[in-house]
Amino acid sequence: MLQVAFIRENKVEVIKRLSKRVENAETTIENVLSLDVSRRDTQTKLDTTAADLNILSKEIGKLFKSGQTQKANILKQKTADLKKQKTALTETLATTSKELQELLYQIPNLPHDSVSTGSSEDNNEEIFRFGEIPELHDKAQPHWELAKKYNIIDFELGNKITGAGFPVYKGKGARLQRALINYFLDKNTAAGYTEVQVPHIVNEASGFGTGQLPDKEGQMYYIGVDDLYLIPTGEVPATNIFRDVILQENELPKQLTTYTPCFRREAGSYGAHVRGLNRLHQFDKVEILRVEHPDHSYNALDAMVEHVKGILEELKLPYRILRLCSGDLGFTSALTYDFEVFSTAQDRWLEISSVSNFESFQANRLKLRFKNAEGKSHLAHTLNGSSLALPRVLAGILENYQTDTGIEIPEVLRPYTGFDRID
b/e per residue, 49-60, with b = 16+ CB within 10 A? Predict the structure, then answer.
């Protein structure tokens, strides 16, 4: 969430940057500032009224003590009028503050200067590419056919148990899935990230803290009887570890990694491009996140990008990195890099990671601050990245490592799987 003080002090810049993302940026910001003026004016009047009441109450007490009952009663009538004014001002302040807060919740983060203006993923900018596209044999198949052929993922069984988008991993498929999770976690902890196990269900405050609510409410599974949500990503519970926390500057950075299942309704996702593992309602993901000093957050973002690059290069998967344009940028992000693995069998790129800097947007919602050496509090910066999302990485391995006699296992994963091929 944007800070009102920052908007007040940087109105022109805010409108300019926000205009990359929304059409009515100037009107929206003017509405914010108008509500802010009204809120502050009402607060000033309320403070003045409260001060006047306090003065009159003391004066009335003195008059009663001195026996000047008539004068005291006259002043009591004035206090009654002031109390009515105070009540009305308090209600006005609450209404205005709520309207301002709700409007701020609807405004996305300001894009970084490097983010290009664009309306969709077609305008994203490719900034890096690695690896040669493998040459597959003539009878190469997409992963959903390979899964059936080698009996490692059962999509029909998952559909029977729950519904479409909830696959069942079997035998070597399940072991490969577990191997990837352990490999990702080991790589992350070796890079200095502390592993945490977090709840897979969160409350509304956690959803608001990281910006999933109200922006992605329709994509989250909601447990109505308990007013709780299944997590769409491990980012939500892990980042909320720091909600309402004040850190010391020398405690930064904080670096965490977590493995969780993720649950997304993915409403409106249909067609061949979402077949098999390409789009699921439940999937596994390993996350990395950082809480950083604002001066260091973009260096940290670069380090996270390099970390994910290293993992994909060890897996020897062809990939590219895209810098997202304003129209494809997530609601809370200031700058996002997407990693995509090339699926040779499908002849298309599959997104497998997003690495983002949210700057102070989440921290403002979370009330996540740090104190510097002088004891002054500042909002921290938060960052998050997939390291990695499993379904499409697994799809990439199955498709790109297939041969006419089976599927080879990437060499780096063999100590984790205990086998070197699926046949």
Answer: beeebeeeeeeb
Name residue 87's amino acid.
T
Q: Which long-range contacts (CB under 8 A, 24 or more apart) does 41-44 make?
A: 42/89, 42/92, 42/93, 42/96, 43/93
- CA Rg, the chain, in Å? 27
Q: What is the pLDDT of residues 127-186, one digit of tens each?
A: 999 999 989 988 999 999 999 999 999 999 999 999 999 999 999 999 999 999 999 999
- pLDDT at site 271: 55
Q: What is the pLDDT of residue 265?
A: 92
The contacts of residue 138 (CB under 8 Å, 6+ apart) are none
pLDDT of residue 85: 93
pLDDT for the residue numbered 268: 52
pLDDT of residue 215: 75
> Are 337 and 323 within 8 A, CB to CB?
yes
Residue with tokens 């009441």: 53
Which stretches of the chain score pLDDT less than 50? none
pLDDT at 267: 63
pLDDT of residue 65: 84
Give pLDDT, residue 1: 94
Tell me, what's the pLDDT at 79? Answer: 86
Six-digit token string for 402: 């297939």
Per the CB < 8 A criterion, the answer to whether 242 and 213 are in contact is no
